[in-house]
Write a structure and sequence with these properties.
This protein has 291 residues and is an alpha+beta fold. The chain has helices at 26-33, 36-60, 73-84, 97-126, 219-224; strands at residues 3-9, 12-19, 65-66, 93-94, 132-134, 138-143, 146-155, 161-175, 181-187, 194-198, 201-207, 228-237, 242-251, 255-257, 259-261, 265-267, 273-275, 283-285. Strand 16 (265-267) and strand 17 form a beta hairpin.
């Protein structure tokens, strides 16, 4: 039976209907996508289930384990934990062929379990996170005498990232000549779309000229066409090193007209640049006149 999948991308949730069933290999991707609390709960649940299964087998074997009361599930469960971990305290051990057979299967299962869990935990810890934050809103204000769409992006790490790529995608509803409403997507041309080094805070700027899809835009027109913007940053984490990516979306009501970002850079007496991250999202009024 076709399944239904809910996928959230920023502020938008997509409901996928009639999706094909997952392949068994999708379980790996699904596990890696879990949050740490859910991942921990999953590992604990699987671990308890494995031990409970083998404890049941030991209980069904009668006098299969020396030192264990026949049919005692708690004793069998803790013996299973010792066997799965290959601890072997010595006060309980297989006593029959059946007991040796079950413990052999459990030890082999434990080897696979340890290998799989080690791999999953290593991958989760080794994956770098972007640690990049975007400003809460976009602003449209004059820049060099022309209106510009501006967005701040900040590197929160204690070291620089390199080979950064910046993109902004603008999308809105439009009517075709046939009278059909469609969603149009426009990559916005940025003044700076690549940076060799990304140490602190940068401002992404798109000049709104006659060729811009934002030319002549007003808060009312953006609302009428259900305007939406998606900002993206791709760069290389130098410590691992590995590529990282993050994005943030903005609706039309998160665009501030006639405001600009406050200055957060300041020269220090010893020649360094001080950056106030606490004012990253702050804006101030700016004279605005749309051409």
């Amino acid at each position: 039976m076709p399944r239904t999948v809910s996928v959230r991308a920023g502020q938008t949730e997509f409901l996928k209907l009639n999706v094909e069933h997952r392949e068994w290999r999708d379980a790996y991707h699904w596990i890696l996508s879990l949050t740490w609390p859910r991942f921990t709960l999953l590992i604990a649940a699987v671990y308890i289930s494995i031990n409970a299964f083998f404890a049941l087998l030991y209980c069904l074997g009668g006098q299969a384990i020396a030192g264990m009361t026949p049919g005692s599930f708690p004793q069998a469960f803790f013996f299973s934990i010792q066997t799965l971990a290959t601890v072997g305290y010595g006060h309980m051990y297989p006593e029959s062929t059946y007991g040796h057979f079950v413990t052999t299967i459990e030890i082999i299962s434990g080897m696979f379990w340890l290998a799989v869990m080690t791999g999953l935990i290593f991958v989760r810890f080794s994956r770098p996170t972007a640690r990049i934050v975007f400003s809460d809103s976009l602003v449209i204000a004059p820049f060099n005498g022309r209106p510009a769409l501006m967005l701040r992006v900040a590197n929160l790490r204690d070291h620089s990232m390199v080979e950064a790529e910046f993109r902004i995608l603008f999308t809105r509803d439009e009517m075709t000549t046939e009278g059909v409403e469609v969603r149009r997507f426009y990559p916005l041309q940025l003044e700076l779309d690549r940076a060799i080094i990304f140490p602190a805070v940068l401002t992404m700027r798109h000049i709104i000229d006659e060729s811009s899809p934002l030319h002549g835009a007003t808060p009312e027109s953006l609302k009428a066409c259900d305007a939406f913007l998606l900002a993206s940053v791709n760069c290389i984490e130098t410590v691992i090193p590995a590529a990282v990516q993050t994005q943030k979306d903005y609706s039309y009501d998160e665009i501030e007209f006639g405001r600009r970002f406050v200055e957060i850079y300041e020269d220090t007496p010893d020649g360094r640049l001080m950056v106030d991250y606490g004012r990253l999202h702050e804006t101030e009024p700016a004279p605005f006149a749309q051409n």
